């Protein structure tokens, strides 16, 4: 019901219906009118259709013809589609064939390249045969063809291992060429080796020639080890004999250049100058006791002379050398030859590490043993401690030089040399210590100046400390400390023979000052030895100042010390009771102080041979006197203080003594 109401309301809202309802038209009449109009339109349309019937028939025929044309076109398009489908299939087939042909071409090219290289590697050209057979081994063409031959031999070995059927075709020719090449190379290398045997030969010339053609040995080693071993053995035998002969002769000639008289057991530090001198004893420069313990310019061999040219014996017949100078020349000659030899064998014979060391030992082992025995022969009777220590320092430096040249082959040799020298060095060092311990002070003259044993120690200690600065050693430090303690004990024992304390102090100061001066001249200021003697000198100097001030100014010094104790204990009444004593001291000082200064100056001048030491001690004494004078001035009563000489007057007088030194 609601649906019909909805439709009715929509129809009533129509414009036509609204118009009819407004005008009040009769619906039936209106309906007949509409039908009539429809009829008229229909009749009119029929008339129009009849008029256009021919056109419609023509259009119908044309549409039929179009249908036939479209059918034919459809047939043609279908045929064309089939043709395109066939073409696409053919293109796909051609593409597959193209890819296949490309793969086949790539494979053929790869095979062709490998096959061409293989044929080239396997083929033995006439040029190679002619060059190997006829060209001298030193020519560049021979070396180039030898490299090619070596490559072909290596390839054939690989193919034989793989059982290739192509290898036997060229094996015979290649083996014949190999034998011919090896024969020529062997002859050449042996000729170069035999050149070493000629007198006055410069070893570097044949060695450089062999290094230039080091591939020769590599070729022989890779193809015939027996021949390579033969060449190596021949070289080892030749060079071993040459080096042994050279160094045996050189060592013998060098030994003739030593000082005729060497240091003996009678040249120990504590032996008296007059001891053990026979009637027919000769005197040479080294036998002078001062040169036994003084390094002088001997230390130059560790610095500017370390790499100096070696000594040529026949050119230095008239000259004489210390042992360390001859040792340096011999060891430097060995370092130069051994380093060159080691680098040569490692490069030419292609050996490394253990093999290189073994080969080097075969060549130079006999020579090194000879040099160790020569050193043992000299060392067993050597008493020259400085010479032995310089030799040890040379060993350290030459070992470092070998390492810088990448030659570790001499390390055991250097260790052997040290094992020969160190025990003897320590033994002789301890003999020197014992000689000082055994000294009897009563046998020496009573002289206040520095003792000659003290001077020997100072020079010797400064030499050892200066030499060992770059390579410190615990054993050397320990021995130096023992020697220092023994020398200090000796100085104290020597001082004890003097009756008065002042003489003892003068003796101690003279000796300590000498040692300190020499140590500071040749070593660092802060060395342990210098520091120890500096403390001793300072303590003895202060004590000596008290001793020399006591005779002239002892009363004032004693007064100051006693009264200052009273002040510290607050005994002021007791201090005031010392006025009479202080007045006597003031009067005595005022009468005698100038004369006392002159006496003080004269005594210091006569007691110390060193002007610098005397001047230092005098200034120290005068400074101490001024201090005591100031302290004395503070302790006096106003009455006594007024009678005291003005300090400025005293200072003016003291300044006069500064110009004396």
From TrEMBL:
Keywords: Golgi apparatus, Protein transport, Transport. Residues 237-545 form the Vps52 C-terminal domain. GO terms for biological process: endocytic recycling; Golgi to vacuole transport; lysosomal transport; protein transport; retrograde transport, endosome to Golgi. GO terms for cellular component: cytosol; GARP complex. InterPro entries: Vps52, Vps52_C, Vps52_CC. The keyword Transport applies. Its main location: Golgi. Residues 48-220 form the Vps52 coiled-coil domain. One of its GO terms (molecular function) is syntaxin binding. It is found in: Golgi apparatus, trans-Golgi network. Belongs to the VPS52 family. This is Vacuolar protein sorting-associated protein 52 homolog. It comes from Hermetia illucens (Black soldier fly).
């Amino acid at each position: 019901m609601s649906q019909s109401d909805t439709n009715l309301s929509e129809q009533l809202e129509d414009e036509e219906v609204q118009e009819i309802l407004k005008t009040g038209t009769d619906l039936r009449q209106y309906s007949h009118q509409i039908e009539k109009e429809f009829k008229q339109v229909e009749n009119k349309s029929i008339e129009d259709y009849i008029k256009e019937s021919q056109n419609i028939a023509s259009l119908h025929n044309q549409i039929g013809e179009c249908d036939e044309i479209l059918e034919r076109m459809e047939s043609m398009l279908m045929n064309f589609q089939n043709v395109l489908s066939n073409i696409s299939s053919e293109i796909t087939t051609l593409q597959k064939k193209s890819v296949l042909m490309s793969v086949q071409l790539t494979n053929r090219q790869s095979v062709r390249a490998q096959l061409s290289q293989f044929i080239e590697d396997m083929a033995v050209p006439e040029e190679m045969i002619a060059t190997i057979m006829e060209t001298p081994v030193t020519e560049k063409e021979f070396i180039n063809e030898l490299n090619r031959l070596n490559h072909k031999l290596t390839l054939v070995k690989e193919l034989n291992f793989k059982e290739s059927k192509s290898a036997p075709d060229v094996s015979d020719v290649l083996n014949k060429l190999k034998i011919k090449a090896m024969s020529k190379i062997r002859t050449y290398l042996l000729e170069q080796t035999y050149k070493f045997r000629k007198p006055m030969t410069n070893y570097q010339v044949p060695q450089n020639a062999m290094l230039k053609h080091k591939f020769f040995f590599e070729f022989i080693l890779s193809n015939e080890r027996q021949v390579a071993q033969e060449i190596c053995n021949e070289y080892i035998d030749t060079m071993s004999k040459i080096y042994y002969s050279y160094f045996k002769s050189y060592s013998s000639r060098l030994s003739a250049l030593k000082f005729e008289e060497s240091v003996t057991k009678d040249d120990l530090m504590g032996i008296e100058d007059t001891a053990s001198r026979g009637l027919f004893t000769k005197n040479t420069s080294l036998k002078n006791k001062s040169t036994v313990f003084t390094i002088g310019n001997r230390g130059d061999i560790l610095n500017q002379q370390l790499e100096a040219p070696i000594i040529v014996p026949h050119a230095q017949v008239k000259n004489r050398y210390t042992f360390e100078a001859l040792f340096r020349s011999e060891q430097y000659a060995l370092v130069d030859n051994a380093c060159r030899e080691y680098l040569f064998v490692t490069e030419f014979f292609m050996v490394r590490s253990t093999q290189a060391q073994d080969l080097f030992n075969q060549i130079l082992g006999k020579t090194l043993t000879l040099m160790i025995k020569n050193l043992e022969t000299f060392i067993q009777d050597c008493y020259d401690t400085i010479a032995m220590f310089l030799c040890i320092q040379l060993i350290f430096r030459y070992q470092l030089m070998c390492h810088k040249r990448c030659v570790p082959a001499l390390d055991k040799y250097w260790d052997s040399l040290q094992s020969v020298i160190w025990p003897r060095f320590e033994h002789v060092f301890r003999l020197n210590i014992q000689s000082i311990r055994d000294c009897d002070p009563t046998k020496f003259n009573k002289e206040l100046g520095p003792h000659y044993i003290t001077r020997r120690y100072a020079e010797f200690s400064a030499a050892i400390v200066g030499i060992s600065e770059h390579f410190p050693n615990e054993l050397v430090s320990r021995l130096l400390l023992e020697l220092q303690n023994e020398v200090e004990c000796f100085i104290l024992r020597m001082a004890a023979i003097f009756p008065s304390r002042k003489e003892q102090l003068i003796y101690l100061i003279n000796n300590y000052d000498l040692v300190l001066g020499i140590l500071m001249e040749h070593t660092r200021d802060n060395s342990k030895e210098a520091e120890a003697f500096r403390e001793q000198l300072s303590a003895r100097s202060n004590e000596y100042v008290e001793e020399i001030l006591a005779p002239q100014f002892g009363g004032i010094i004693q007064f100051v010390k006693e009264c200052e104790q009273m002040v510290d204990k607050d005994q002021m009444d007791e201090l005031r009771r010392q006025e009479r004593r202080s007045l006597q001291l003031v009067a005595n000082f005022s009468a005698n102080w100038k004369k006392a200064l002159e006496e003080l100056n004269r005594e210091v001048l006569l007691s110390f041979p060193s002007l610098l030491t005397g001047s230092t001690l005098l200034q120290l004494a005068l400074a101490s006197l001024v201090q005591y004078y100031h302290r004395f001035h503070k302790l006096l009563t106003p009455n006594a203080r007024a009678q005291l000489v003005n300090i400025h007057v005293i200072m003016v007088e003291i300044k006069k003594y500064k110009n004396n030194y």
